[in-house]
Structure formats: structure tokens, C-alpha cells
Design a protein that fits this description.
heterodimer, A: about 160 residues, alpha+beta, Heat Shock Protein 90, two-stranded antiparallel sheet, 3 helices, 7 strands, B: about 120 residues, alpha/beta, Transcription Regulator spoIIAA, five-stranded mixed β-sheet, 4 helices, 5 strands
């Protein structure tokens, strides 16, 4: 009998993966694919990996919808369209915990959500997205300021969300 | 991966829509438009076969809920068929399984809902 080959994830150093994509709907699939690879570095179960993938997708969707509304807001005000904003996704692997921060550059203080189109036939799917995130991961944090919004998602392997 | 939408009439006011791929913020706009066209043609019952759908997010759920509302207002219904376990879990954790008619197969949906598929 030998137990010398046993290793623990605590032995591994903290690792960080950063991804920057245009804040456009067609890039959410790219982010989900990358998250799949990152989440597989942790001893998550299949369901846990899928939970993280869906939660990060929801965080990106949240940013993309707001970005789209912000562009419409600028157009309504006759302001020149700025270049497509970037969406920054920072994944930190620390032992059996994955932290994903999704940051957009939409200025919250300037942008007033008066023309929100997030309500689809009376369904506010941004709210639905937030509910999903809260169910799927262990911790969800929102931080908004004049330079943008950061959604922080934390999930630890083996913990029921 | 994108989303493919294949639809056909299976009865006077019944349409079967088979979806394949991912329903997310990018593809749900297309899905909403395709469903609107089908509803305009007079369908009262929509059967959505989700057996080949690999991903469903809140925007996709929003399209499904909106469609369900419209159909029920006109005395019809939206029937969901064959979601994979992963997709079914999303209906379960959001509690939406309580408002949708969900069946494992088209045959079972046809029998229970009394529609031809």
C-alpha cells in the first residue's frame, strides 16, 4: 500500500488567467469556452463546471445588455458612438476556489437607465440572470462606479451553492 | 456554436420547433424573431423540442416565458420536449418547471396535451 502519490490542490500556487473580449453578444461563447478550460484546472464536478460556465455567461450578458443600452443612450443624445467597449474577465485559481471577475467600462454615474430594453415582454431577464448567478455560485458581488461595473463570482469545489 | 431553428406545422394550429445549439444573448434575438413569425401564422400551440440544445441562459428563458404568455393569452400553450438534464436543471433551479409543460418525448407531449405532433 502506498499513499506517496497523493497530492492536494492546496500545494498549487495561485494562478491567474485574464481574457479581454469586445463587449458584444457574439463573444459570450468565446468567454464560456475559455471558462470551461479554466474551471477544469480545479477539481470541480461536471455540474460545478457547468454552474460556473453559466454564471460567467450571465455576468457577461449583464454587461453586454448594459453596453448595448449605453450605446442607444449615446445615440439618443446625438453623441458620437464610441468604439466598442471591452469586457475583461479575470479568473483566479486559488486551491479549490475559482474567483471570476467580469468588468465592463460603462460609466454608471453618467448613464441613466431610462431606455432599458432588458425587459422582454414584461420579463426582466437581467433580474433572472442575477438570480441564476446567486444560485449557481457560492458568492456574487457587484461593484459599480463611474468607470464601470465589476461582477465577482466565487465558487469552491465541493461546496453546495 | 450558433442556433438552428427548424419548424413545421403538425396540425391546424400546432407548430413543432426543433432547436439545435446554444440559446444565449446572441442567439435568443433570432429565436424570438423566428417564434414571432410562427405565431403570426396563427399557431396556438408551440412544441419546442430542446433535446439538441446544449446551453440555455436567462435571455433564452426570457424568450420562452414571453412566448408562453402570448400563447396562453390566446388560449394556447407552449410545450417543451426532451430537455437534457443540464437544461432541465435550469428550469428546476429557477422554479420555471412549474409554469411550463415539460415532457421527455414528443409522443408523451402529444398524448398528454391532446395535440398532434
Amino acid at each position: 500500500m502506498s499513499d506517496q502519490l497523493t497530492t492536494t490542490v492546496e500545494d498549487q500556487a495561485v494562478a491567474q488567467v485574464t481574457l479581454v473580449v469586445p463587449c458584444l453578444a457574439e463573444f459570450v461563447g468565446v468567454v464560456r469556452l475559455a471558462i470551461l478550460g479554466v474551471a477544469n484546472r480545479i477539481s470541480f464536478t461536471y455540474d460545478e463546471v457547468e454552474d460556473v460556465r453559466l454564471a460567467v455567461g450571465e455576468a457577461c450578458t449583464h454587461a453586454i445588455e448594459r453596453c448595448s443600452e449605453y450605446r442607444a443612450y449615446l445615440t439618443d443624445r446625438g453623441q458620437e458612438q464610441v468604439e466598442v467597449s471591452a469586457l475583461k474577465i479575470v479568473c483566479t485559481i486559488d486551491g479549490s476556489t475559482l474567483t471570476v471577475q467580469v468588468t465592463d467600462t460603462i460609466p454608471v454615474a453618467e448613464y441613466v437607465d431610462v431606455n432599458s430594453n432588458s425587459s422582454l415582454d414584461g420579463i426582466d431577464y437581467q433580474k433572472l440572470g442575477t438570480v441564476l448567478m446567486e444560485i449557481l455560485v457560492d458568492h456574487v458581488g457587484f461593484e459599480a462606479n463611474s468607470s464601470g461595473t465589476t461582477v465577482t463570482l466565487v465558487k469552491t469545489a465541493g461546496q453546495a451553492s | 456554436m450558433n442556433l438552428t431553428v427548424d419548424s413545421r406545422n403538425t396540425g391546424e394550429d400546432v407548430s413543432l420547433i426543433t432547436l439545435e445549439g446554444e440559446i444565449d444573448v446572441y442567439t435568443s434575438i433570432q429565436l424570438k424573431q423566428d417564434i414571432a413569425v410562427i405565431l403570426e401564422s396563427g399557431a396556438k400551440y408551440l412544441v419546442l423540442n430542446l433535446s439538441k440544445v446544449e446551453y440555455l441562459d436567462s435571455t433564452g428563458l426570457g424568450v420562452l416565458i414571453g412566448t408562453l404568455k402570448k400563447l396562453r393569452e390566446n388560449g394556447g400553450n407552449l410545450v417543451i420536449v426532451g430537455p437534457a438534464m443540464r437544461i432541465m436543471r435550469i428550469f428546476e433551479i429557477t422554479g420555471l418547471y412549474k409554469i411550463f409543460a415539460i415532457y421527455p418525448t414528443e409522443e408523451e407531449a402529444a398524448a398528454k396535451e391532446g395535440i398532434s405532433i
